[in-house]
Amino acid sequence: MAEFLQAKDNRKIIHVDIDAFYAQVEMRDDPRLKKLPLAIGRDPDKHLGHGVVATANYVARKAGVHSAMGSIEAKRACPNLVFVAPDFDKYRAISAQIHAIFHEFTEMIEPVALDEAYLDVSSNKMSAPTLAAKLRKRIWEETHLTCSVGVSYNKVLAKLGSEHHKPNGVTVIPHNLAQDFVWELPIKDFRGVGAKTLEKFEKLGIKDGRDLYAMSQDDLRVYFGSFGDVLYWQARATHFGPVKDRSIRQSVGKENTFEFALHDRQVVEAAFKELASKVVANMEKRKLLGRTLTVKIRDDDFHTSTKGITQSVPFELDPAFMVRQAMLIFDEAYPDDMAIRLLGLTFSNIEEQKYQAVSLFEQ
Ligand SMILES: [Mg+2]
Asked: Matching PANTHER family, A to Z (predicted)?
């Protein structure tokens, strides 16, 4: 029965998890941190002993530091531990960058955390492992961050896959290998198995997927309640949960940085025109509309002005209109002297374009 169900599941699911996300970002931005044991969190010495480790790099993990550990405890485990305070604005911005890359592959995206998501790429003709490789390459090109990826036909296997080879690993679990993969999995690695469940399993003498597979559904229900069913199907490499598309984009936009500052109003207008047509093309392609249009301008002194206009109805996707709005803001912010280094146009308050219902009835 389970084998029959498995065989029917022909989806292509990818689970992506950026390795030690916050820590990796901080090491990327300050390479001196790479060789040091690093914790993202408040330094207990500077904050009266308060603080929790949000993420630790792999050097610190080897010394026994892990996320959610109290900072004092972490420092006891690893006395030369370096603390860097988290910068969530930065992490959110990078997460948005990564999500924009996800959208190059599919619109069926279920974000789990800033650094983690499920992608259903079933509708793409390329093979899932090829797509996973491309995805990893794109993330590296755009962010210089590594990730671990699991590829399979359901979410649970994809997630187990991404956890299998960390960091910077890819694990592909096709149908013909799935049952063996699950059989060989240590019981602690099954989804949802925490300390309490593990204790119960120890008492029952259950050590791995093979032992779990041998337990009856009734027994699993007796010991674990409704979670018993989850375990029963996990042991059979079967899971029908869909990738829940919760990825309504926060924003669609484009920025241009200029190596040589722009000094001419007409050149600025032309640059906005180019940005506007790119943003509109992107919105059209994704069938989106936005109620807020934000214009960003940065000058030579790194002075940045960002101004948004919000309407009660979505903006029409008209580049000429967008350029007019942008130039109004530009003229207000930079009345005379100018040396422009960056221009940006972004739509937010995004909603989907409604299809015309008429066509349905006309057919
Ligand atoms: Mg991660």
From this structure: DNA POLYMERASE KAPPA, DNA REPAIR POLYMERASE UMUC / TRANSFERASE FAMILY MEMBER
> Candidates 3.10.129.10, 1.10.60.30, 3.40.50.300, 3.30.1490.100; correct CATH number of 251-352?
3.30.1490.100
Residue 325 has pLDDT above 70, yes or no: yes
Question: Domain 9-21+89-176 in CATH: superfamily?
Answer: Reverse transcriptase/Diguanylate cyclase domain (3.30.70.270)
Helix axes 265-286, 319-333, angle to 10 degrees: 140
49: CB partners within 8 A, 6+ apart: 71, 72
Contact 185, 235 (CB under 8 A): no
Alpha helix (H) residue ranges in 192-339: 195-204, 209-214, 217-224, 227-234, 265-286, 319-333
| Residue 132 contacts residue 170 (beta carbons within 8 Å) | yes
Q: Where are the domains of the chain?
A: 9-21+89-176, 49-83, 185-234, 251-352
pLDDT at 357: 40
pLDDT at 23 over 80: yes
For the annotated binding site for Mg(2+), the residues are 17, 115
Token pair listed for 255: 């920025």
**Per-residue pLDDT at 356 exceeds 70:** no
- Cα(298) to centroid of ligand 1, in Å? 33
For the stretch 174-195, pLDDT in tens is 999 999 999 999 999 999 999 9
Interval between CA 154 and ligand 1 midpoint (Å)? 19
Cα 24 to middle of ligand 1, angstroms: 10
Q: What is the pTM of this model?
A: 0.69
Choice between 5 and 349, residue whose per-residue pLDDT is larger: 349
Whole-number Å distance, alpha carbon 23 to ligand 1 midpoint, is 10
**What dotted CATH number matches 49-83?**
3.40.1170.60
H helices within 103-194, ranges in order? Answer: 128-143, 155-164, 175-184
Q: Please write the tens of the pLDDT for every residue from 266-292.
A: 999 999 999 999 999 999 988 889 988
CB 115 within 8 A of CB 15: no
Cβ proximity of 208 and 184 under 8 Å:
yes
The domain made up of 185-234 has a fold known as DNA polymerase; domain 1 (1.10.150)
Q: Which of 116, 141, 316, 362 is catalytic?
A: 116
Expressed in angstroms and rounded, the spacing between residue 341 Cα and the centre of ligand 1 is 34
